[in-house]
Amino acid sequence: MQTSPSTILVVDDNEQNRALAQAILEEEGHRVVLATGGEEGVQAFSRERPDCVLLDIRMPGVDGFQACERIRALPGGADTPIVFLTAQRDLETFDTALRSGADDFLTKPVRPTELALRVQTALKLRRLGSELQDHYAMIRRQRDDLMRLQLQKERLMAFVVHDLKNPVNSMDLQAQLLERNRDLPERARGPVARIRDEARNMLRLIMNLLDISKSEEGRLGPVRGDVDLAVLVAEVFAALELRARDGGVTLAHDLRVATVRADPDLLRRVLENLVENALRHAPEGSSVRIVGSAREGLVELRVADEGRGIPPEMREQVFERFVQLGSVEASRGGRGLGLTFCKAAIEAHGGRIWVEDGAPGAVFCMELPAEDAP
């Protein structure tokens, strides 16, 4: 027996958002009713009695919260699934959505597959019996608690970046002013240079933490451009020159390719993390090298040191958070978040990163597409 298509009411004041939702849902076999605002959405609900409502939050006049409350008060509105679609991803918006009667909460831009699955789930849950509804209510409370924790984590990330980045930048600025002071005693110039070095390192750690969080949420999007590798490598070496000099290590490069399509900030921080990691393990009197080459539509970058190397069975684990490989003396790389960030950033470019044996040492290898993905 063939069932009639479900009716989905889409309420959004943005024409492109309505068109996208309509295309996704009609492709799934649903009948779609469109409304351009909250007041029109309430009227459409009374007229059409839809099986599910997709509701934008920020709309002129009657906003999504008000529309949701009014729909819940209408005949049939109490048990109709209402899914909020919003670009506002914060704890206050989430809690207000739940208080106004929302069943689910999706943040824009919405992935087509996710939207189709959420609507399908909402429609199935509406048909459940009362006992299963009770189980679902418990699961939904658990889901809402997890979502709330996730949003609290994102708020903490925002605090880390915005509230810690400024004082770290101020530390670096004050150190720069001291460096330019001609009256600064020569014996103080070394410590000032180290203050600058540690401030830059702290800022890199802060940005790593933020970008790892973005990557986990699928929000780490590179802004690609043509990056001059010689200039980029020179900047990386300049930032880490003091650490290399303190360790008695030489920085060198062999670039057989001039440019790469990449996000310059992300790629610079990837190379900084990899070179800093190599310097931490390179013996005195050795060198750390960056080698660049092009082949078959790919640009390959390699960062090599002459340290202890990494056992083959451990080469995937070094990209995990806070991994320690064996004893302290043999530990490589995974003591923090630097390599985790490198993997996230390279994969966000559509590339890959891995470790090879340098005999001696370790070689961190990256492949990036030579051109933007279609």
Detailed description of the structure:
By secondary structure, the protein is α/β, with parallel strands linked by helices. It folds into 3 domains: 7-127, Rossmann fold (3-Layer(aba) Sandwich); 150-216; 225-369, Histidine kinase-like ATPase, C-terminal domain (Heat Shock Protein 90), CATH 3.30.565. The chain has helices spanning 15-27, 38-48, 64-72, 91-99, 112-126, 130-179, 186-216, 229-247, 264-281, 338-348; strands spanning 7-11, 31-35, 52-56, 82-86, 104-107, 225-228, 250-255, 259-262, 287-295, 298-304, 352-357, 362-369. The strands form 3 sheets. Strands 2-1-3-4-5 form a 5-stranded parallel beta sheet, sandwiched between helices. The longest helix has 50 residues, at 130-179. The protein starts with 6 loop residues before the first strand and ends in a 5-residue tail after the last strand. Residues 326-335 have low confidence and may be disordered.
